[in-house]
């Protein structure tokens, strides 16, 4: 179009910028702003909705440089500077939007963890009873790792690997911090309760170590952290 209608170059650039702005704003309103719940009757905005929004926002963010290069072929030099800065602002808005979606995904997992942690003291009470002989990890550990696994599957199917790693790097840090703190405050009064605690810690650590983080701590153990330290301090040689 720039080649055939050079006089319309400025108008075309302005219109494309406005379209990009509108799409970004509307997507943010519908997903992060939960507007889709009113528009389409959704009961909630799920991690899958967030992942799909991130996917399309990331795609547009990636092609903005190509769009800019094509659209500016016939733009007069005196006008390029202002329009280029406008395009750069739009690109930055898309990047911020994508990062906010990823932050929301981390927040969702943190909130789910806190929900599970609130029920932990009640579960621990059963550990100290003589009749408790359940060989499985607790409902707390199993439910938590199931939810993490579900989030991993959703994100891995939709997002780039580097984005999935960045999200789970934050999730791993939160899990290590929150879970080790919660476990350290438990009153464990019987050998069988100690065994149950050990079983839960190792089960959760198995999940954490399988998550696609970038393992930035340079440890030989994937996603090593505070919960590993808790395991070693509390159980010593039993930790392995």
Q: What secondary-structure arrangement, pairings included, does this model have?
A:
Blueprint (H helix, E strand, L loop, with lengths): L8 H22 L5 H4 L7 H25 L5 H42 L1 H8 L11 H20 L2 H24 L6 H20 L15 H10 L5
Keywords: Coiled coil, Golgi apparatus, Protein transport, Transport
GO cellular component, one term: cytosol
Subcellular location: Golgi apparatus, trans-Golgi network
Please state the average pLDDT score: 89
Q: What are the low-pLDDT stretches, counting only 5+ consecutive residues below 50? A: none
Count of strand segments:
0
Classify the secondary structure makeup into a structural class.
Answer: mainly alpha
Tally of contiguous helical segments = 9
Cα Rg: 25 Å
Strand percentage, roughly? under 5%
- Percent of residues in helices comes to over 70%
Count of domains: 2
Topology as a string of helices (H) and strands (E): HHHHHHHHH
Largest sheet: none
Query: Distance N terminus to C terminus?
Result: 66 Å
| Assembly classification | single chain
Report the principal-axis shape: elongated
Would you write up a description of this structure?
The protein starts with 8 loop residues before the first helix and ends in a 5-residue tail after the last helix. Helices cover 73% and strands 0% of the residues. The chain is elongated. It is an all-alpha fold and 240 residues long. The protein has 9 helices and no strands. It has 2 domains: 6-101; 119-239. The chain has helices at 9-30, 36-39, 47-71, 77-118, 120-127, 139-158, 161-184, 191-210, 226-235.
